[in-house]
Structure formats: structure tokens, C-alpha cells
Amino acid sequence: MSTEEKLRKLRNAIKKLESVVVAFSGGVDSSLVTKVCYDVLGNEALAVTARSETYPEYEYEEAKKIAKGIGISHITIDTRELGIEGFAQNPPNRCYFCKSELFGKLKILAKERGYRHVADGSNLDDVGEYRPGLDAAKELEVRSPLKESGLRKADVRELSKHLMLSNWNKPSYACMSSRFPYGNLITEEKLAIVAAAENYLRSIGLRQFRVRHHDTIARIEVMPEDIPELLQNDKREELIRKFKEIGYKYVTIDMEGYRSGSMNEVLSTV
């Protein structure tokens, strides 16, 4: 399909919703859904961002800017993920608990304000990955216009660029809880350590990365082409010093480089 045909298909899927609350994180997927929902439905679309311990402040500030640029009505709700029974213990289906709470709150909000549906930014590629949150979305009848339109990640970026969304080439992002091995307790203190470490990597110009938290060990994932840069003496020494100031005892670079969902690699062996 051409870009225009893909956009037409997405617009038609959204038009059928009539009115909608969009779960808006500020990522590329939810931004595209938010943009097209506003273009098609106008004031019958509302963007809602959930703030929590696992959602960094810089992501929230960026989400506000994107929503303002789109022009859609945008509100914020608070969620307390660490207070959800079973979440902090970090089981493999952790995301199910998080999404159940989020979508549950959005369904209530939509009903109170007279919106017919709740929508998220899941795309067709998400179906082939390990994403327990999709089960929560299905149970709560959350609509996924990108997935329903047959759009994949590459299509999302293509359409986002076509519509001149400011974040069309933003690196993929996952909530901070994905930085911890399954079964390791997630706490606010640990989240703060990871956030500080990732803020440092961002400050030195890296775009796509993760800091995986293995107790006293930081396992840094960056794109393979960025690994040599981190190994330069001055940068390497500064990185080690910064990470130890943050609270890590050992600082490592994962030689496989960045890959989405690397913590899921152990699931086939447990």
C-alpha cells in the first residue's frame, strides 16, 4: 500500500470509533494514534497520559509538548504501579498488572466523560512479541487502530513522518520496569538509580540504549556502532566514575548491543 492508502485505512478505522480516549505515552505509536484521532474526531478525542514511578519526567514533558503540537485536549492521571499487587515482585507477566490498572482507569474516565472507546498504540508487530499487556487490553476491550489497520512499526514511522510529527524518528522506549530481571523486586530507589544512569547516557549524545539493572551491576546496552565510542579512554573513565557515583559497583557493556526486550531472553529457559 502507498502511504496515502495506509493513512486512509487508519483514518477509516478511527472514524468508526466515533469518540475515544487515547492512552498517550508520547511514544511514536501512541502519538500517531493521537494525531489521527484528533484529525478525524476533533473534540471527540481526548489524550490521557498516566504518570507513575516507572515513567520518567523527561518523557512526560515531551508528551505534553507533542500533545500541544497536535492540538488535542490532553489530561494527566496518576497511577501507582508499585502499589499494584504482584507488580513490584516483577513476574514475567508484570505488564499485565500495569496495563490492567491503566486501561481500567481509562475505561472509567471514558464512561464518565461520555467517550465510547479507549484506544492504545499497539501495532501489528506487537502481536508477535511477548507482551502480556495485550491480554489486559483484550479483556478490557481496548481498541488498537494501528493493529486493526494492519500497520507495523515501519508503517507507523512512515506515516508519522508523512504527518510531520516531531517525534517520528524517536528511539523506541519501554517503561523503566523493563530494566530489571524478572523476579527481582522493583523499588523506587532502584528506579531512581536506573533513571540517573540513563539520563547520563542521554546527556553524552546517545539515542538508543538501555541500562539493565543487575543489583550492583549495570549492564549497558547501546547500538553496536556506539560501543567503540564508549570504550575511548576519556569517555570510558568518565562513564565508570559517573555510574559508580550513581550507585553501581560494577559497570559493563553488553557486547550484543541494544535489543528490545532483552530481559525476555531468559523466559525460554525458566
What's the CATH class of the largest domain, please? Alpha Beta
CATH fold label of the largest domain: Rossmann fold
Main β-sheet description = 4 strands, parallel
Order of helices and strands: HEHEHEHEHHHHEEHHE
Number of DSSP-assigned strands: 7
The low-confidence parts are none
Shape: globular
Active site: 175 (nucleophile and sulfur donor)
Organism: Candidatus Brocadia sapporoensis
Domain NAD/GMP synthase: 14-81
InterPro entries: LarE, NAD/GMP_synthase, Ni-pincer_cofactor_biosynth, Rossmann-like_a/b/a_fold
Describe the protein's architecture and organization.
GO terms for molecular function: sulfurtransferase activity. One of its GO terms (biological process) is purine nucleotide metabolic process. Residues 14-81 form the NAD/GMP synthase domain. This is TIGR00268 family protein. The chain is α/β, with parallel strands linked by helices. The chain folds into 2 domains: 3-162, HUPs (Rossmann fold, 3-Layer(aba) Sandwich); 176-269, Alpha-Beta Plaits (2-Layer Sandwich), CATH 3.30.70. 43% of the residues lie in helices and 13% in strands. The chain contains 10 helices and 7 strands. The chain has a 4-stranded parallel sheet, with helices on both faces. Strands 5-6-7 form a 3-stranded mixed sheet, with helices on one face. The longest helix is centred in the middle third of the chain and has 20 residues, at 94-113. The model has no long low-confidence stretch (mean pLDDT 93).
